[in-house]
Structure formats: structure tokens, C-alpha cells
Amino acid sequence: MMSRARREEQHASIREEIKGAARRLMEQEGTAGISIRGIGRAMDLTAPALYHYYANRDALITDLIVDAFNALAEELERTRDDARGLAVQAQLMQVLLAYREWARKYPIDFQLIYGNPIPGYQAPEEITVPPANRGFLLIAGLISRCLESGSASPRPEYAAVPPKIEPVMDEMARQFSGPEQRFLPLALYLTTVGWPRIHGIIMLELFNHIQPVVGDVDLFYRIQLEDMARSMGLAMK
Fold first, then answer.
1. Residue-range domains of the chain with CATH
2. For each of the chain's 237 residues, which pLDDT tens digit applies?
3. Which of 11, 22, 137, 158 has the highest count of CB atoms within 10 angstroms of its CB?
4. Contacts of 119 (CB under 8 A, 6+ apart)
5. What is the pTM of this model?
């Protein structure tokens, strides 16, 4: 008789195979094209057989989203750790470069978590938000360190959180700060301001819209990061 540990291992292995088939299906038909029937055909399994591993399509999508957010965060964490000997602004630059590289390497996963919504799917916040926060908070943590170290002097337009937004940022700082990491409300605000700027470039690149306009996207992206750091007062002195 198969042991419980062996059954659990086999169950997890088949779930990984299902997720692999789902990713291949999304590569062919886009993130909205994922379906249990399509995955079943690709794996030569019936839909009822797949339901033994995932209760429904939404459960599978949620698992894929969690995997993608965690994989992105782990890549950013590795990049930060590898750059620990550098000034914190240089660490931040390396992390933001890694953010784009991960998106280019795993475009389907990036589109799944930041691209087109999947018809009929509603992400369960209690499951997807914690892994989604990991990458965001890593960047906000580096900006907090820049501000606390005195190595950054935000320009007047970025020196304070706008009053109407301040309560939200204050609550986020209270919620996420802990003994090992303190998040400044201003750092969370600057992260939020910068996020759509880099995200927009990456999404345009993934859909091949920006390449004909700027040519060298590597150079363009780096220039935008440096300009953003200067405009926010986060550039190295």
C-alpha cells in the first residue's frame, strides 16, 4: 500500500504537471484561454480526473497567480541579497532591472498577474494579496532605507505624501512595519508613484509596442529608472 507521504508527493507532482499544461495553454491562447477541458485534452485526461486535483478552474488560476507572485518576489529578493555590498540606491536599481528581466523571461506569468483580467474570475484577496505584496514591499523597504539613511533628499513635489492619500499610506505603514523592517509612509507613496511608470514600459514591451519607438529598450528602461530616481530625489549623491 502506498504511504500517505508518497500519495501526497504524487498528488503535488500531478498538480505541477497540470499547472505546466495550463501555462502552455496560456502561451497559445492567452491568459483568458485557460480551461479545465483544454488542459485535460493537452494531458489526455478527463475533466473529472482533473477535478480530483483542483476543485474548479478558479482554484487552478489562483494557484498559478500565487506561484507567479512568489517567483517574482523570490527573484527580486535574490537580486537584493546579491547586491548587499552596494549602496542602497544601487540595490534598488538592480532590483528594478530584475523586475523587468523576470517579466521578459516569464511573460505569460507576468501577464497573468498584471495583465488582462480573466473573464469570470475573481481573485480571492486573502490568498493572492500576501504574495502580491512581497515584491512591492521589498521595493518600498529599499526606498525606506534610502530615506532613513539620509542618502536621499526627495524634491519638494515628492517630499511628503499628499494629504488626501496620507491616511491610506499611514495605515499601510502601520500594517506592514515590524521589528525587522519599518516602512515609511513616504516610501510606500513613492513606490506607488513609480510602479505604474515602470510597469507601463514593461507591458508595452511585452506586447511589442515600444520597440519600434525607442529601439534599445534596455537603454530606455535604464534611463527612465535613473530619471525617476533623480526626479524623486532618490539618486545617489
1. 1-54 (1.10.10), 58-232 (1.10.357.10)
2. 567 777 778 889 999 999 999 999 999 988 888 888 999 999 998 888 889 899 999 999 999 999 999 999 999 999 999 999 999 999 999 999 999 999 999 999 999 999 878 888 999 999 999 999 999 999 999 999 999 988 888 899 999 999 999 999 999 999 999 988 899 999 999 999 999 999 999 999 999 999 999 999 999 999 999 999 999 998 865
3. 22
4. 32
5. 0.92
